[in-house]
Amino acid sequence: MFDRLTGTQQAPPWWLVALAALVALAAVAHGPTWRLARNVVTIAHEGGHALVALVTGRKLDGIKLHSDTSGVTVSRGKPHGPGMVFTAMAGYITPPLLGLLFAALLAGGRITLMLWFSLLLLAGTLVMIRNAYGALSVILTGAVVFGVSWFAGETVQAVFGYLAAWFLLLAGTRPVVELQRMRTRRMAPSSDADQLAHLTGVPGMFWVTVFGLVALLSLVAGGALLIPDGASTPHL
């Protein structure tokens, strides 16, 4: 296992990479599938809040995940200042940035490392979960990742890793669109963007734009890393 974690694995054929991208796109675009898959995005979103809260010296009280795919991370500390700003900003940008990190690991052939790093992040999140649905959601997600990383063959692991990376990259934009739609309808008065507007005096629309740009740039950069080069796809 140590050799696999520190070594490299073979990337799947280009057509499997393309298939993983199409499946991930379908999961984001198809409403019923998205409502289920969005739980993964919520885990990453709230985990981003929690991680930055700890890094900036705030005291983390816990995370709650809900069946409507919403979530909340509660931390204590000064109600203003850089720590609070970075904590509020982290949620929407964490899923696409995590997808970009996964893409970089996969581009380097670190498929097993990417899967076990995912498990480490899920374990850290589980420790801070404070409700039953949230615990169940994280445990089931971790069980799937563990099952693939421990029992599946190398090709299945590679395809699963690429699918996870594509999903996080493609899923980064939809929550931002949903956020702005809810803000337009005045249904999210305490959203991350509006909290940042209150903390900084900069309009909430600016922060929505920042979230969207991070998601789009991560998708472009991550896609460039995940798409096989021309030398490996002579018949494409």
TrEMBL record:
List the transmembrane segments. 12-29, 85-107, 113-129, 159-177, 205-227
Keyword Transmembrane helix found: yes
For this UniProt record, give its keywords in alphabetical order, as a comma-separated list. Membrane, Transmembrane, Transmembrane helix
Kindly list any coiled-coil regions of this protein.
none
- Leader sequence range is none
Q: Does the keyword Chaperone apply?
A: no
Protein name as catalogued: M50 family peptidase
List the source organism.
Answer: Actinomadura harenae
Instruction: Identify the taxonomic lineage of the organism of origin.
Output: Bacteria, Bacillati, Actinomycetota, Actinomycetes, Streptosporangiales
